[in-house]
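Database export, one record per block. Field names are fixed; values are copied verbatim from the stored entry.
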Amino acid sequence: MATKPGNLIYGLDDKPPWTISFILGFQHVFTMSSTLVLPVVIARGIGGGIDVVQSMVCFSMIAAGLGTVLQALRKGPVGSGYICPNLCGPSYLSVSVQAAWMGGLPLMHGMTIISGMFEMLFSRVVHKLKFLFPPEITGLVVLMVAVALIPLGSSKFVGIDYAGDAINLKELPIAIITLFSMIGFNIWSKGKLKLYCVLIGMGIGYLISIATGVISQKDFNVFLQAPWFSLPGKGTQLLSYRFNWGLVLPFMVVSLCQCLKSFGNLITCQKINDEKWSGPDMKNVGKGLLASGLSVTMSGLFGGMATDTSASNVGLSAATSATSRIIGIYAGFIFVGIAFFPKLTAIFSVMPEPIMGAIIIFVTCFMIIQGIQILVSSKMDTRKTFVIGISFVFGLSAIILPGLYSRIPSWLSPIFASSLTLSTVLAILLNQLFNIGARKDNIQLKGKDQEGNQQS
């Protein structure tokens, strides 16, 4: 039985009033919408028109929203019972584009279904893999989930799209004011105002963006021209799927990488919601991965892009001290509902990047501390020091030197392209390798203890 931490305003089993749940759910939706540009990139990459683009975005939102609801369920075989929302998975972008180029959207959708089924199968055996994730590796995974957000958050914060670009001095003040508004309301606000610190900061950022012209007249026209209600599916081949054996391995590797990321997100949820947390609940993780796999499968079936659990939203629930699963259910249904109202979708589509960067940095701070706390709680010896140190160094190398592993075999590239996946795989392998001698030592120590007890 989890012990509710004292810093939470609304804990996991609390039931906030529906008005508060709706507002907090809407706050999560803003963060979930941060990757909606990815299906736009895929659809436009194959020459899709505006109807195809809108349909892909809407179907992705529906699948992500339903996956968020499933994740928040606590009874039955599906769902971890935590706020661990879904969004469009950035790691799936390259393989999804490759599939779309080779066989159009039907091939991308078919391979997405295979990815979801693989994740669901993996979720059924993950509880048997607890020996691979002692506390120090669990802490490393949680820490690297946060570290993986740093390049995205910092680049958007300073207004840089490519390495070597100059800092955007017009957008940087917006990011700074937005971030410090969130921090100010989080630290110094009284009562329950802390719950809405991100939403208030975003509102301030939007107002400044309008006043400075960062949100332009063209952005306003996007909102004005969008209809209030529309059914998705125009201009797309619904219920049309194709498969290619040559793409199975790349999609499965990416799916495994996302399972590791979701593992870190779910462990963070467990840590946030239990004052006396001591180790991962692998059966709970398995239920969470099953919900995530179902979301990916629904993405392919409906006609959207593959989804993934959101580390930013996990950090947001910690930052606002509101982790009630009811909020997750509200966020999921709101995300589904917005897919049918293009005017509301337009509000998210014109979110300025400095605001997005401020949100990511704000929530990443909480994720980093959670990972460090888990690492510190583990008694480190020489073996663990090398396991964590080497894995952390090479994980960071994938971020600091992005082209370092560009010439490795293509089927391995998803592992080396992600700092989280690279550090996690290395940590698991090194831990098993360095513990070979440790197991023999432990057996000998136990034998000596038994002999000593018999003699005494």
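Remark 1: Residues 93-123 form the longest helix (31 residues).
Remark 2: The radius of gyration is 22 Å.
End of record.
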